C-alpha cells in the first residue's frame, strides 16, 4: 500500500521570491545531468524560524538567502527543491501578488490570480549541499563604510584577470594584508600586467585568492554599505544582510602577487621616472589612435625620450605630439615605448596625475613600466614595454 505524503504549503509574495532568486543565476547551471542539481531548496522550519531560507549550490559555490517572514507569508513547515530556471520564468510573468506553493512529494503547484502552474520538484533530502564547514579558518570583518570601496577595488582589479585553467591565480583577485598602512591590498596578475591598489581600514589576516568564477556572484554583495564578515579556509564565506556566499578555494601556484612584485623590484633598477597629467596623456593618445596604424600589428607605439626640455614625446610615421612632464633620469638613455591601446586601458584606473617609471634588468634594456599615483600607494600597475629605434 503506497505511503500517503502530506502536502506542504507555502504562501509568499511573488516579487519578493523572484528578487531573492535572481542572483542564483550566477551559481546554478542550466540543464545539468541530474535535474535536482539545477534546483533551489526552499524551506521554513515552522517553529523556530522567523525567515524563509533559500539555498542554491554547485560543487564549487553555495548561496544562502534568508527572507524575513511577514504577515502575508505562511509560517508552516515547508521544504522542497524546485527547478530554478522554470521557477524564475513563471515568477517573471507575474505581477507582485501572493502565491501559494503546494508540494506533494513529486511536484510543486504555484497558484496565483493568474491560475496554477505545476513545476518539477524534489524532496529536500535530495538536495546537493556541499560541506562548507571549516574548523581551521580565519575570520575578519569589513566595516560597513568600507564595503563599497572594497567592491570597487575588486571590480577594477577584475578587469586585469584572464581565464587560465593551468594558472588559476591569473583568473582571480587576491586580498592580502598591508603591514605598513594596516589596510588591505587588492591584486590581479596576468601574463602581461600586474595591478594592485590599497583599501584602508580592512585588516586581512592572511593572503587568499577569490576565484574568478566567484566574482560575478560576489560583486552584488559588495555594492551596499553594510558590514561583511569573511571567513577564509578551504571555503571562503562572505556573509552580509541575511545572505551568505560560500566559494571553494582553488588549487593555485605557491606564488602570490606580492611575491611576484617583490621579484620584479628585487631584480630591477630604476631607469626613468616621469609624472604627468593623466587627462592630457589620455587625450593625446585618443588623438593618436585616430591616425592610420599599418605597423606594429595595427597599433601605435608611443615613446618618451629624455629630452632636455623634459617633454613626453610621441612620434610615428604620421605625426608628432609633445606633452610636458616632470622628468628624472639619464640624458643618454635609449627611448622607451609601449602600445598606445595598452596604455589607454591602464590609464582608465587612474585620476589626476600619474607616475610612469621604467625599470631595467641590465643597463639600457628596460623590461617593464610601472604606473602609480605619485606620492601615494593607492594603486600601481606594471606592463611590458619595447625599445624604439629612434
From TrEMBL:
Gene3D superfamilies: 3.70.10.10, DNA Polymerase III, subunit A, domain 2. InterPro entries: DNA_clamp_sf (IPR046938), DNA_polIII_beta (IPR001001), DNA_polIII_beta_N (IPR022634). GO terms for molecular function: 3'-5' exonuclease activity; DNA binding; DNA-directed DNA polymerase activity. Its main location: cytoplasm. It is found in: Cytoplasm. It comes from the Bacteria. One of its GO terms (cellular component) is cytoplasm. Pfam families: DNA_pol3_beta. The keyword Transferase applies. SUPFAM superfamilies: DNA clamp (SSF55979). Residues 10-128 form the DNA polymerase III beta sliding clamp N-terminal domain. The keyword DNA-binding applies. Keywords: Cytoplasm, DNA replication, DNA-binding, DNA-directed DNA polymerase, Nucleotidyltransferase, Transferase. One of its GO terms (biological process) is DNA strand elongation involved in DNA replication. Belongs to the beta sliding clamp family. This is Beta sliding clamp. The lineage of its organism: Bacteria, Pseudomonadati, Bacteroidota, Cytophagia, Cytophagales.
